[in-house]
Amino acid sequence: MAARFDLLVIGGSAGSLSVVMKIIPLLKPSLNLATVIVFHRKQSDDSALIEVLAGRTDCRVKEADDKDDLLPAHIYVAPADYHVLIEKNKTITLDFSEKINYSRPSIDLSFDSAAEVYGPRLACLLLSGANADGVDGLLSAKRQGAFIMVQNPSTAEVPYMPQQAVEKVSCDLLIDPDNLKEFLAAILE
């Protein structure tokens, strides 16, 4: 069964990797869904991340490169220290401009640029983290018709980021990482 969205953008910081590790196996190639993952991470964290994620899904997992086409059944991981922007021609642009919310990559920029292109065919998921990056991007995405999901702050290792989102954004779904049936149902047609 195909997804009802064309693009899923997942944003997270401290404490989010363990949740992504539970979500990745659910992202089957048959969903026909492109996925972008934006983590706050150091360049020294890069070595094994792609291989670890790739080992948990049949989708192709790769670090995002400038001008990559966003293809179904592909998972693109934002490289450390680069913003990931989604362009109108459904490609990725890597950007080294200033940090936003002390972060590069900025989850806000990825959510916002994806929403401009995909509108209601976009699903956004904000996970655990220690700052408010992603909240403004969710607001922008919501205004453009995107489906907004946030990790339930009570389940987050670092609840600040999802708590800010819950307080400021009208979320369509709160995600419990130990019960992802609702997540999967939400992205299916």
From TrEMBL:
**Could you tell me one molecular function GO term of this UniProt entry?**
phosphorelay response regulator activity
- What EC number(s) is this enzyme filed under? 3.1.1.61
The record's section on CDD domains has:
CheB (cd16433)
Please provide, in alphabetical order, the Gene Ontology terms of the cellular component aspect for this entry. Answer: cytoplasm
Provide the reaction this enzyme catalyses. Answer: [protein]-L-glutamate 5-O-methyl ester + H2O = L-glutamyl-[protein] + methanol + H(+)
Asked if Secreted is a keyword of the record, the answer is no
- What keywords is this UniProt entry annotated with? Chemotaxis, Hydrolase
Is Hydrolase given among the entry's keywords?
yes
Superkingdom assignment: Bacteria
Q: Name one Pfam family in it.
A: CheB_methylest
The signal peptide annotation in the UniProt record is none
Example GO BP: chemotaxis
List, alphabetically, the InterPro entries matched. Answer: CheB_C, Sig_transdc_resp-reg_Me-estase
Occurrences of domain CheB-type methylesterase (ranges): 1-189
Q: Which residues are responsible for catalysis?
A: S13, H40, D133
What is the designated name of this protein?
Answer: protein-glutamate methylesterase
Question: Organism classification, top ranks?
Answer: Bacteria, Pseudomonadati, Bacteroidota, Cytophagia, Cytophagales
